[in-house]
Fold this protein.
Amino acid sequence: MRPRTPETYRKAIDFFEHALALDPQSVEAQSRLADLLVLRVLDGISNSAAADIARADGLVDQALAAARRYALAHFVKGQLLRVQKRSEEAITEYEAALALNRNLVPALACLGWCKLYAGSIGEVIPLAKQAIRLSPRDPGIGHCYYLIGTVHLLHSEIGEAIGWLEKARSAIPTPFHHSRLASACALRGEIDRAAAELAEARRLDCGDLFSSIAHLRAYPGAWWGVPKIRALYEATYFAGLRKAGMPEE
C-alpha cells in the first residue's frame, strides 16, 4: 500500500515469497505474489520483465488449477494476459473475476485499460468512474485517475487530462503517471513544467525506460493497443514527450 518504488516492491515480494515457502499450496500467496510481479512490470520498474512475467505465469496457473472460482486468481490471470498484450483474453478473465466478486475494484480499472487497448475507448471512463464510486478512498484510486486522464489525453482534451493526471500523480507517483502529465503539459505549451515531470519520471524509473521514445515503445510492460489507439498515442502522448525533451533514440 506504500508508494510503488523498486524498494517497496522488493520488500512486499520478499514477504509473499516467505509466505509461499511456509505454505506452498496457498492460493492467495500464489495469486498475490503473481500480481506484484506483473504490477512491477506494468509500472515500468522491473529489472527483468521477462523473468517476472514467467514467474507470475507459473504461479497464477497453479492458483487457478487449485481454485477455479477464486476471483483474485482470475484477476491476476487478466493482468498477466494484459502485460502479454492479449487484451481480448484479458477482458474475459477480468469479467470472470467480476462475476465472482462484483466489488473487485482493481478488475474494473484494468478492464477499462484492456477495453482501451482493444479499441473500445468509449467504454473506458464509465468503468473507471464505477471503480471510484465503489471505493472512493481506495489506495489504488490513483490508477483510476490515471486511466481517465489518459483517455482525455488521447482525445486531445488537454485541460481535462492535466486535471486527472495531477490527481493520479499525487495519489500514486509512478513513472508513467509523471510521464503522462509531462506529455499533457508540453502539449499545452508548459515546457518547463513538462521537462520537470519527465525528469521525475526518469528518477523514479531508476533505469532507461524514459530515456527515449524508442525505449518506451519497446518496453515489454507497455502496449499501445490496436492501430487506431496506437495512432492516438502517437498524436498525443509521444508528440508531447518529444516537446518535453525526450529524444527519438
The chain has a mean pLDDT of 94. The CA atoms of residues 75 and 221 lie 17 Å apart. The domain at 1-102 is CATH 1.25.40.10 (Serine Threonine Protein Phosphatase 5, Tetratricopeptide repeat).
